[in-house]
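Exercise 3.2. Students should predict the tertiary structure of the chain below and write it as structure tokens, then compare their answer with the key that follows.

Predict this chain's 3D structure.
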Amino acid sequence: MREYNSFSTAQTTSLSGFMNKVYLFMTLGLLVTAAIAFYFHQHPWLSQAIMRSHYAFYGIIIAQLGSWFVFSRAVRNLNAPLCFLLFLTYSVLTGLTFGIISFVYTAENIGYAFAITAGSFFGLSLIGYVVKKDLQAVGTFCIMGLWGLIIESILALFIPALRGNTMELTMGAIGVIVFSGLTAYDTQKIKSMAVYAPNQEVAAITGAFMLYLDFINLFLSILRLFSRR
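Answer key:
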């Protein structure tokens, strides 16, 4: 496997500043999501109103998928402010869905899952940052696993047997493996963006969005393992 070339002092300083921006944007997105989720948890009538209206519920899901699709496909043609606006939009919509999820799991389980996710994410991202070996093979394997999780989630909408506690635990465990690998892989991939990306601001927001998705999905996977409701 190939190794990444070492950075000079100037490059290391530039990389450090770039990665600081990435983690800053990611943290901001997580804070927005947490604030929206907390507000909805404190006002359960809002979540109940969304759940009663199929149009509102599926509208949020479609809007969330739509913002992700636009961000993923058109990011190279967007300027930094618009890119950041899309990231915040997705963070707000994720907060809405989390506000509903907060009534499904116990507060204790959510707290444990978040603490484990935060610690795991820090360690995994650090590995991706410092490791010299190319993690492309790990990324390819995890992306294949991600598609498997997506297919299972779609099938679960129509097959009740795929929604049992045993399947929840199994998919949760697979999700932890998949998004753990993606966290390390994406961090290493983002490092190269600091050198080759033509627009550093857009690249930093894009990297933050990648790590934000890894964190959120790792959290959800760990939460599935805490299946007491």
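Discussion points: Residues 1-7 have pLDDT under 50 and may be disordered. Residues 9-42 form the longest helix (34 residues).
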